[in-house]
Amino acid sequence: MRLPLRASIWKRRTLIVSLRVARLVRTGLGRVFPALRYLAKSLHRRWRRSLQFRTVLTTLLLSVTSFAVVGAYLSNQIANNLFQERLTQAESETRYNVKQVQDTFDGAQVTDQSSVITLVYDTLTAVEGRGDIIQRRYVFEAMPEQTKPRNRWVESRASDQLTVSVIPPELRKAVQQSGKDQYWASTVIPVGTEDRPGIAVGNKVTFNGTVYELYLIYDLNTAQQTLDEIQSVLWAGGAVLVLIIGAIAWYVTRNVVSPVSHAALVSEKLAAGQLQERMVVKGEDEVARLGASFNHMAASLQEQITQLATLSQMQQRFVSDVSHELRTPLTTVRMAAEVLYDARHDFDPINKRSAELLYNQVERFQSLLSDLLEISRFDAGVAVLDAEPEDILQVIAHVIEGAAPVAAEYGCEITLRAPAGGIVVEMDARRIDRILRNLILNAVEHGEGKPVNISVAANRTAVGIAVRDHGIGMTPAEAARVFDRFWRADPARARTTGGSGLGLSIAMEDTKLHNGWLQAWGKKGSGANFRLTIPLRQGEEIERSPVQLEPGEITLPGGPDGKNMLVLERGPAPVPPAPDPAPEAADSVPPRQDEHAEEPALGSGDVTSPPRSAASAARKDSP
Predict the structure, then answer these.
(1) Which residues make beta-bridge pairs with 468?
(2) What are φ and ψ of residue 497, in 5° steps?
(3) Global pTM?
(4) Which tens digit of pLDDT belongs to each residue from 602-620?
């Protein structure tokens, strides 16, 4: 009973120890692999970022490869020469010793067994050359398949620790089938507790009518030791030489790369605005001339940048001062224009038309002045983002409600495709409202009465809003310039909804304040698509936009479940507040309505908005 119990205990202990060892191995591998990955990444980063490291490492690798090839060739040649020298010596000594053995056997006058054994032993011992060092060893073996004479008392003999098995079978076969030719082969001979390389040279000898195979074996251990020493010297010398070459390469590349690195550092500081930075110039060589040229270029750039910065500041200050100074007289003019506009029904037709034109142009002038003030704030760097968590779908619905009268005037419908529920975003709702208002009104004006599609989607880090129209479109070159200030694709085209030409520029600046993206795509005759992408939380980086920039087909009402659709259908033109004839679109704007109407709920169906004119609904920018 005790033996099975002990066996069970030892089995359990063995299992516990195995599990602990496996856990330790797994833990060690879990720490080693990350360290190796970190080392590999560090080397790769160093390889990409350092010209000196790349040059020195490449030089070392090429040097090691060259020395390895040359060392292998030299080692092989030395080994062949040593072997050939030892083989020639072995063949010569073997011929001499075999002749001596055969002459001794031929002249022997022995007839009894003990005399024969003594003669063979003494002869082979003499061949072995015993002394402090055994010069050669032997294997003496009678050839098989011979008729055994009565006086053949010696079958085989060999030196200590040797047997006929050390002779390669191919050599024995060649010796047995030959006449008096001599053959050799490489072999391994046991000496003490080690195996040494050797050469076995075989011949035939005859004694008392019996043919024997006589193999003399030469130890090549001395030649192998000589070769090992030569190889050690070669590899040690090669390693030292590689290190010396690496040090030379490091020193040379350092003298060449250091000025380049210094120039790169100075360039980065210049790009960061430190225009006073210059390179240190020493000597009169090519690098010194490069440094002098670089410093001259930097001085010239500093002078030009300073002039441009001064001019820019003067322009910004001028715009800001003029805008501020114009606000007071413009307010007075606007109040007078409103008084005249409200009393226009008492005027004759000519004065009535003049009051309407005055009111409309003052409205446009005030819009332009507001845009200039906003641009001056961006240029001065005083624009501040007032971000709070809000539902961006409510902001979009408010913008669509404000754009409804303009859409009705142009006879187009606005379609919103958004996820069910809300999307809470940390944003400045006022600025996002202004961005979307510019994008939607642009799409309505340039949509040629075709539908305007708004798509909203969100991912883990960002929310994307795409405003797609199907109107005149624009080329890639126009899409690249559409956010420039005062730029228009067709300067001769009349404005129908007013605007300052700064709307998209301000929208881009508002987007930058949110650390977002504002991008444009267009194709002539196929419309345009503007995509706004902002992070869900301020301070996060946008990985990718959840909506496409180059749009695909957009599903209209009746799409997949789980989506909300807001459709603003075509409607009649807004009715003017007075029975007078409607003014021309380019010059007349009815009185502004209250823009704080109740926001429509997101859901399937039609939304009815109070009629409003294009100019009073929102400011737009014409691409």
Answers:
(1) 453, 529
(2) -125, 15
(3) 0.46
(4) 333 333 333 333 333 333 3
